[in-house]
Amino acid sequence: QIQLVETGGGLVQPGGSLRLSCVGSGFDFSSIAMSWYRQAPGEERELVAIIFSYGGRTHYSGPVKGRFTVSRDNTQNTAYLQMNSLVPEDTATYYCRAGNIDYWGQGTQVVVSS
User: Fold this and answer.
1) Which one, 3, 9, 75, 98, has least CB within 10 Å?
2) Parts of the chain with a pLDDT under 50
């Protein structure tokens, strides 16, 4: 059974940093692309970043490029999202996703506010 558990969210001031983690189980973690999405209140869920399985190629959405870094540790079945220079517009619930599997964890909430 597929499971994704996101942690690391919280309240942070503008300009601050957070590191999110996503632990996956129930699938072959090392062979699947892992992506991060976010959903702000009243908004649709949007793709933030993706890291492919082999080679670790990455892709970022425009608003986070240069500020966020996605990485993975296949030995720990964990994907990470390092978020720097946070702005209030980054406030959202953040989710990870395994490939195109239609499964979503509970997410982790990020609030950027002074």
Assistant:
1) 75
2) none
